[in-house]
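User: I'm preparing a small set of examples for a lab meeting where we compare how different chains pack in three dimensions. I only have the primary sequence for this one, and I'd like the structure in token form so I can line it up with the others. Please keep the answer compact; I'll paste it straight into my notes.
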Amino acid sequence: MAGWPDGRMAGWPDGRVAAVPLVPIVRFETPSITYYSPLEQIPIYSRTGGAGGDAVGGRKALACRRRIRQGAEALTRLRRAVRSEAGFTLLELMVVIVLTGIVLTLSAFAVRQFWLRRSLQGAQDQVVVQMRQVQQRSMAETYPIVYGVRFQKGSSNWGIVRYNATSQTCQAVNNLTMGDGVRFVNDAETDFPDVVTATAACRNASPSSASYEVLFFYPKGSTNAATGGSSVKLEQPAIPRTNKVIVSPLTGRVTRA
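Assistant: Understood. Below is the structure token output for the 257-residue chain.
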């Protein structure tokens, strides 16, 4: 740090510290050293050598050069520090915003895909659970009461029905609807062989629909599923993706596929 030749810190001769750094400038016309303010360019301190002034002035000139070099290096470091703390340019800010938007868009798409897959999986689990409960309920009953599950192909409507073989009447026990856009596929896979009078009666049970496919569970645990097994196919049109529920005709076993 620059200072006076007698060791004091740079400032005014009366001891006050200067508001700006003082840079010593050597004049070689006379054996004297004059200190100038680098901003105001006015002399603020001067000292003239006496006897042996040339030698003393030479040493002081070297010291002043050294202090000037140190001051220049300090100023350079200061400028570098200020430059390194500069803010972002508009282009850099726009690039960051665009990249952030792309990442958020990809994340939202991935989350939506995961949510849709989970909705289809949840619907499949719900159908499996209801079928197994209906099977247990039928096995707990005696003739002529049987329970079944009906599915409206091409829609999200389904439910549980109760059929009385003696009176040949069918009653809707519970009407259900798939959520999140999941629906039953309207194709040959979601198709159960008709049972005489029973299937027609359960299709006409309120709310009635001719597109209902009815799966009955009998007191012994068997079903009206086709030989080799029948299936219920569910789909999530937004993906698209399908899951199946397979029912065995003899044992009434319900499995996922």
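A couple of notes for your slides: The helical segments are 53-84, 90-140, 198-204. Residues 90-140 form the longest helix (51 residues).

User: Perfect, thanks.
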